[in-house]
Amino acid sequence: MTNASAPIIPGARAALGMSTFAFTACFAVWTVFSIIGIKIKQELGLSEAEFGLLAGTPILTGSLIRVPLGIWADQKGGRLVNLAVMLSAALATWLLSYAHTYPQFLLAALGVGVAGGSFSVGVTYVSKFFEKGRQGTALGIFGAGNVGAAVTKFAAPFVMLAFGWQTVAQVWATALAVIALIYFFTTRDDPDLVARRRTGAKATPALMQLEPLRRLQVWRFALYYFFCFGAFVALSLWLPHYLVAVYHLPLIAAGMLAAAYSIPGSLFRVFGGWLSDRIGARRVMYITFGVSVVCTFLLSYPATTYIVDGIDGPITFRLSLGLIPFVILLFCLGFAMSLGKAAVYKHIPVYYPDTIGSVGGLVGMIGGLGGFLLPIAFGALNDLTHVWTSCFMLLFLLVAGALGWMHLAIGRMERARTPSLRELPELPEMAGLQPNPQPVRAAAPPRAAA
Question: Which of 154, 135, 164 lies closest to 348, judged by CA?
Fold first, then answer.
């Protein structure tokens, strides 16, 4: 529960607000290929798998650097590290506008992906300004910076159609550099860094910060985030292309409708953090996975034409998901994912308060890798199956597996914590019986008289 009487650390509000603003800008740059990639695909004549690789390459960089950036943020302070991340990504995004060949685009995309590393820096930085009872809400607000994906989907199509995709890259790069400077000059160093400077204490060595990564629990959290965040990013990149191809929408309309998924998947993360503080992150994860299983199952059903032999001849009918039901289900899926993203990161400061940078970086890295691998898998499945909804089939299998693992792990923890649970009957109708009844032995026959 939140301790409402706990004092607010000086600079906490500015750190949270500006970090969220900066992360929004970084996320807008990080997902820019979801729009300009469609034009580049047409110019270069790329296949579905090649487009998926191009769209996912920035996600690869932003994922792999999250662990070292999280550790550096713990050691050097998130404020300075985030400035370096944002300026580096701005330079790479500007240089993207000069690419002409597919290898050049892939190389530029690796540099653009540095923007994605700002997440682990921001989590480490922001969490140090808030006590445990407020960290869920604070990190939920910060994570709402995912709405940067919607910013790109709303604005980039208009800029691209008016001035070309090169202008999109240059405008996004300039905006990111300006926001980086505003962020740096309006925030202060985190309390842990200030205390270490005052006392001369050394930061936790990198090897010690990596020690928790040996625990299976950390990797279980990473799988949760692989779906909640990785699939969110993957769909943010894939949906404009999907809507254009499946529903034959113009690019601007596709970008707008894709934002109907990105916006709830971002802004409701704030609610997810607040809800995790109130009812617990575990319950929120059950809600997330339960809703997501239903939504992905319905979205995965391909348009199908049936022919039934009727009394008077064949009867033909067709089942398909129209545009409006598709957008509604997508909104619900984005809402569920937003709750899960916040709930996963509610766990980390509670279980690993001294190694937030490394654990949060690893979880973020695995989640980001989902954003890299899944678009490639979506494209490969399209090429292999020639079924557009195959992307949602894959997501259904992923979330069903995560839900099953979580439920089994929680059951094991509960039985270990309360040994008496092992004696409960497996079936409700056995509740009145002894848990381990002893078999009744038959009486020995009387021995004959000698």
Answer: 135
pLDDT at 4: 47
Contact 269, 144 (CB under 8 A): yes
Nearest to 277 by CA among 139, 126, 406: 139
Give the DSSP letter of residue 423: G
- Residue 277 CA to residue 60 CA, distance in Å, equals 31
Give the whole-angstrom CA distance, residue 359 versus residue 219: 9
Q: Would you say residue 361 has pLDDT above 80?
A: no
User: What angle, 0 to 180 degrees and rounded to 10, lies between the N-to-C axes of helices 165-186 and 33-44?
Assistant: 150
Please give the domain boundaries of the chain with CATH numbers for all domains. 12-196+204-417 (1.20.1250.20)
Q: 262 and 151 in contact (C-beta within 8 Å)? A: no
Query: In this structure, which amino acid lies at residue 73?
Result: A
CA–CA separation, 145 vs 147, rounded Å? 5
Contacts of 130 (CB under 8 A, 6+ apart): 9, 12, 16, 138
Stated pTM of the model: 0.70
Q: Are 114 and 85 in contact (CB under 8 A)?
A: yes
Dihedral sign from CA coordinates of 191, 197, 198, 199: positive
Query: Tokens 């497996």 appear where?
Result: 426
Residue 2 has pLDDT above 50, yes or no: no
